[in-house]
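Side project, low priority. Logging it here so it doesn't get lost.
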Amino acid sequence: MRTDFFDRDGSVEFARAFTQIQNAIGDEAEQLGLFWGARFSGIVDTPHIQLLAEHDLGARECLKIFRKNGDQLQPVWDEASRRVKPFNG
């Protein structure tokens, strides 16, 4: 699971506010155990936030869980929720 956010406006005032918001979101994401792209080495991707690899639930694994449970989506959501539970308190 990944998310990105970006500035569409481009005004100086918006850019300042956007940077403050982006940094606050990034700081909070890290406190929750997520990875913030501002920490990338090389090309920094400040708007990027993602689960760490150990919590990732890829498409193949989702499909496997889905098929194993009679093409039911709920078990996929249950597994995703189990993996992010540490972030939910």
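Brief comment: The helical segments are 12-31, 59-68, 74-84.
Revisit when time allows.
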